Amino acid sequence: MNPARRDVFVDLCTQRDYLAPEGARPALNTPQVLPNLKHLMAYARWARVPTLSCVDARRPNDVRGLARPDCVLGTYGQQKVPFSVLPNHAFINSDNCLCISLEILGQFQQVILAKEHRDPFTNPKLDRLLT
């Protein structure tokens, strides 16, 4: 095994609008998924596994007129479910800038990247961190 290799967990959209019964777009299999997610995040916390998380972050102007907008910035539904946030984390906005420390996962156990579209690679910082 390569000693330079490090495992990283990737967590996509573990937000209240998707995982809470009162969310704007709750997943149909939430009761089956939540226990597994809790176990994985508990393991990441315990084993100190670096974690890259992506969250949907829609601007209010971008969802105007939608019947049930989800993950609107600043709303309860846009927040990550509490168990999915590790104590030592950093939040990175989507701003079309590549300026991010490549050692950020050495400084923080979890990096939470905002994304404005469904595709997580719309935040160029994710691609930079993964490569």
**Strand percentage, roughly?**
15-25%
CATH class descriptor name: Alpha Beta
The rough form would be described as: flat
Number of β-strand runs: 4
Structural class: alpha/beta
Total discrete domains: 1
The average pLDDT score comes to 85
The count of helical stretches stands at: 4
Q: Order of strands side by side in the largest beta sheet?
A: 1-2-4-3
Low-confidence stretches: none
Tell me what the CATH architecture is: 3-Layer(aba) Sandwich
Biggest sheet architecture: 4 strands, parallel
What are the secondary-structure elements, in order, as H or E?
A: EHHEEHEH
Helix content: 25-40%
Radius of gyration: 15 Å
Describe this structure in words.
α3 (about 105) links the parallel β3 (about 90) and β4. The chain has helices at about 15-20, 30-45, 105, 125-130; strands at about 10, 50-55, 90, 110-115. The protein is flat, with a radius of gyration of 15 Å. The protein is of the alpha/beta class and about 130 residues long. The protein contains four helices and four strands, in the order βααββαβα. The longest helix has 18 residues, at about 30-45. The chain has a single domain (about 10-130), classed as Rossmann fold (3-Layer(aba) Sandwich). It has a four-stranded parallel beta sheet with strand order 1-2-4-3, with no helix packed on it.
